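[stage:ingest] chain + small molecule (pyridoxal-5'-phosphate)
[stage:ingest] validated
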Amino acid sequence: MDILKKCFEFNGVEELKASGTYFYFRELDSAQGPEVSLNGQRMIMIGSNNYLGLTTHPRVKEAAVRAIEKYGSACAGSRFLNGNLSIHEELEEKLAAFVRKEAAVVFATGYQANLGAISCLVDRHDLVILDQYDHASIIDGCRLSFGRYVKFRHNDMNDLERVLRQEADRSKLIIVDGVFSMEGDIVRLPELVELARRYGARVFLDDAHAIGVLGAEGRGTEEHFGMDDGADLVMGTFSKSLAGIGGFIAGPKKVISWIRHFGRSQIFSASLPPVLVAVVSTCLDVILEEPDLRRRLWENTQKMSQGFEKLGLDTGMSETPVIPVVLKDPMKVYRMCQALADRGVFVNPVISPAVPPGRELLRTSYMATHTTEQLNRVLEAFEDAARENGFI
Ligand SMILES: Cc1ncc(COP(=O)(O)O)c(C=O)c1O
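[stage:predict] done
[stage:export] tokens:
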């Protein structure tokens, strides 16, 4: 028996490529802006998580250059040992203050933040309760832990209560996305927190798509709902509004100290490069000092969700700059993706396992820096492509 046999016999990629329906690893040769270049062709990008457009913000780029000049390219070691800089500690304080928690710890990616924090918090007899639409990194964190996990129906508080009631005797952690990454709807946090308190569970909020986007100052889901102290722990990633890569967990000092010392994806992995520390720190300043960016992001969001509605396209439950166009069939998704690419629009196809089978969609998302003219072109392309394929 050859362990590599399955790889040699798998032809799925070649088959998709031959049928012209392979839309992965597309090679861009430009910055991740509202327009990108793909094989020399200009395309409007509506597949990016660069919500505030900060990847090319002059202050952010300048901070990155300064950090490289001062600290070089990397720390060549774990935070735990030789790779800890004072700017890491400063960033953690800034992040904690931003999401209004006592303390924070940073990780090299958002994925690693979920993996490390969940796996070290959840013990053999503990239970994790997940929304069925939670991000894959949350599920993988549960798989790495010694505990058990169960799912409740998406954003359904009655179903959550059913699980909480059934599992009354266990130590419980409820983990949810603040903004669900594929559907773009917002967790019903006030009701969820109320249930958690009633049944003695703790709440872990993954605010990857909410930071910089939700709340008057962009502080995330808790601010959106006007909650001072809703979740016990807030997780965030730097790969979306914060224009870098990395992640963090914020919460009570003692819990963060536990994660710092037992979160294996932090201890056994090299520290966040100084350039990214500087980028994220500057993005936090820009978010607070340039609220106009968030206003423009929401204007663009409103324009697009109204535009899709007018075209008769199904945008599911979206309430945020993540707006799915739900087609419920992988081939329909691929056909639209190609038709849109032909019209100069870059959009992401989403099929199972990223969404449940039968929920296949195009995930569109918007930036503060998209112009009205670009968004009009996107709507025209959608209308044209959907008519051509008989979807409207
Ligand atoms: C909800 C959610 N959590 C966690 C992550 C992982 O973050 P990163 O890509 O920064 O590692 C993502 C990224 O796609 C996400 O959407």
